[in-house]
Amino acid sequence: MAKIVFEHITKEFIDEKRGKVRAVDDASFTIDDKEFMVFVGPSGCGKTTSLRMIAGLEKQTMGNIYIGDTLVNNLHPKERDIAMVFQDYALYPHMTIYENLSFGLRNLKTPKDEIDRKVKRAAEILSIEDLLDRKPRELSGGQRQRVAVGRAIVRNPKVFLFDEPLSNLDAKLRVQMRIEIAELHKKLGTTIVYVTHDQVEAMTLGQRIVVMNKGVIQQIASPDELYNSPVNMFVAGFIGAPSMNFIQCKVDNDRFIAEDIYLPIPEKFLKAMSKYQSKDIIMGIRPEDIHDEKYSQTVKNKSEIMANIKVVEKLGSENLLYFDKWGNTITARVSSKSKIVYGDKAKIVFDMDKIHIFDKETEMAI
Amino acid sequence: MAEVKLGNENIPVFVEKESKSFKVKRVIIYSILILWCAFTILPLYFMIITSFTDPNSSANLQFSLIPTEFTLDSYKYFFTFNENVLRWLFNSLFVSSIITISNVFFASMAGYAFSKLRFPGKNKIFWMLMCAIMIPGQVTLIPLYILVKDVFNMTDSYYALIIPSLVSIYNIFLMKQYMTSIPSTLIDAARIDACSEFGIYRKVILPLAKPGLAVMGIFSFVAHWNDFFWPLLVTESSTMRTIQVGLASFKFVDSTMYGPLMAGSVVASIPMFILFFSLQKYFLQGITIGAIKG
User: Fold this and answer.
1) Of the four, A3, A286, B32, B94, which is 20 to 30 A from A193 by CA?
2) How far is CA B52 from CA A303, B29, B244, B246, B270, in A?
3) Pick from A64, A89, A83: which is nearest to A191 by CA?
4) Which CATH fold would you assign to the domain A245-359?
5) Chain A, 98-127: which have a CB under 8 Å from a chain B CB?
6) ipTM confidence
């Protein structure tokens, strides 16, 4: 069993300029055995600090961490049975790839023939058998990343920790390595904790995702749930690319008023909106739920507006339209068949069944 | 515009010519550099040609660029002048080597601690050391001499020559600055790879710090090999002299034996040349190539 338990974990740093800084604030959650858990959030949100606390590279200010059933608060990284892949690979430049892979096992005084067997197996899994005699500087970025993963595999640990492992790779290689990491998880069946700031990586890899902001956990949920039922505006805005559009509206009986435009409140929200009468709320709508009127036959609950299109991005499979409305730039992801071009005054359709509503004060979902 | 023949066609091409002012600039720069080199090499050249002159004729210094004679007599004179000449060489070698080794060991450990480890009072201790570096050596010389002579009674011994220089603050500073450039993730990776703290220093930090250690090693060795004043102060007997102090004995009240003195200087330079050329490859070596992204 290699579940990981965070019990009221707080981590504070003393910063010379800012004084006491709380990097992680009272985090409690459980990562199940064999689960692929992704930590996601903007820079400085505390995700890497959380990972480093699991690794034992940072000590928490308060709270307990369990790996399996063992309380690991005071255990050295080597006693935690974990392996970590770093963002910058962290390969030992003076050692060959074979020595890099076997370094951990040699430190654990593993017999030579066993080291050899394990290194060769890891090299085979990652297709780096031909690189074993080379030095890290002779490898490409992708190969180095594979070696870094290999160094984790040879140890056969209870938990794998990945700290933004793909952020230094180019876009194509990143997609390829993402697939390889997902396959690796299936093959090894080990608990994986993966940190990234890239929400696409988080959505595609994670069985569950922890969304963090300013040291506070915002939501822990499956990718689907995060996407469809974000608990607050931060999660709604962070998950999804392009991100969700937010429009400030006033509740007026069974409709929203956004400046001069009236939008009918969907039936499922009518009851909840009764206590927001005459108050401002934030309506959220994802770009894919805004359509070109000519290609909106499938939309049941339509609201039409006119928009002056200021930018059109043709991505091949779809077009992205940008227009200014309500003081914001609204993004719409429409069919690639759409004929709307830059400068058009176009009829745009909102799919009102797909909207999200947030309290303006608390920014929490209603 | 010039023309280049490609197949049957003459293709016009633009050839960028060096401007006149650029050429003049280059001539000036090269002239300055050549003059600078000549000034640097001249003392060395003078030392070598004088060492091959007759010990007696060179007592009265005559400087000429073209050597007029070639003899090894000055070398013979140097080695037979005093029965302890070889001992002086050995003393210098022994003292400089021990000091260099101890500096490499202690300064690298301290540099690692100051650059990569977290411990209470780290910055305060480091700044205290930095303040100590600013005190001129001449100021501490007399208290140090009293300490060595009267408190520990170590004069005229290897202890007196070695112990005060076991580790220099300047070297700690040098190593701290150098080790700061080693990526901390390598240390984290080694910690996770079940390496002990001393193991990290020995297996990861030291191999990566080789270029820095080489520079520090050469500086330490050269500084102590050439040190004259401290060995002169703390040694009395001829057997405890170092080569630099020994060489001074070729200077008499009314004349100087330039031939043997220069022969001795050439001999005394050999270990430094060997050290420099055996370690020079590290100066050019980038340490973290391939370790991290890019």
Assistant:
1) A286
2) 103, 35, 20, 20, 16
3) A83
4) OB fold (Dihydrolipoamide Acetyltransferase, E2P) (2.40.50)
5) 103-104, 107-108
6) 0.84
Crossing angle (nearest 10°) for helices B85-116 and B122-133: 140
Question: Could you tell me if B77 and B260 are in contact, meaning their C-beta atoms sit under 8 angstroms apart?
Answer: yes
Q: Of A361, A331, A360, which is closest to residue A256 (Cα–Cα)?
A: A360
CATH of domain B82-250: 1.10.3720.10
**Is-contact B272 B204, C-beta < 8 A?**
no
Q: Evaluate whether A3 touches A31 at the Cβ level (below 8 Å).
A: yes
The DSSP H or E segment spanning A147 is helix A141-154
Contact B185 A88 (CB under 8 A): yes
Fold of A4-238: Rossmann fold (3.40.50)
- Give the nearest chain A residue to B200 (CA atoms): A107
DSSP A55-74: HTSS--SEEEEEETTEE-TT
Query: Coil, strand, or helix at residue A24?
Result: strand
The dihedrals phi and psi of B197, each to the nearest 5 degrees, come to -60, -40
Q: H helices within A189-263, ranges in order?
A: 199-205, 223-228, 233-238
User: How do beta strands A318-325 and A62-67 pair?
Assistant: unpaired
Question: How close, in Å, is residue A76 to chain B by CA atoms?
Answer: 8
Q: What pLDDT tens digit does each residue of chain B (294 aa) get?
A: 566 666 666 766 666 566 788 889 999 999 999 999 999 999 888 888 888 888 876 555 666 777 777 888 889 988 888 888 899 999 999 999 999 999 999 999 999 999 999 888 899 999 999 999 898 888 989 999 999 999 999 999 999 999 999 999 999 998 999 899 899 999 999 999 989 889 999 999 999 988 888 888 888 998 999 999 999 999 989 899 999 998 887 776 677 788 888 899 999 888 888 888 887 777 655 444 344 443
Provide the shortest C-alpha distance from residue B278 to chain A (in Å): 19
Determine whether the interchain pair B194/A139 forms a contact, defined as Cβ–Cβ distance below 8 Å.
no
From the list B189, B195, B207, which residue is nearest A90 (CB)? B189
In the numeric block, the tokens 């180019």 are attached to: A170
Domain residues of chain B, as ranges? 82-250
Domain ranges of chain A: 4-238, 245-359
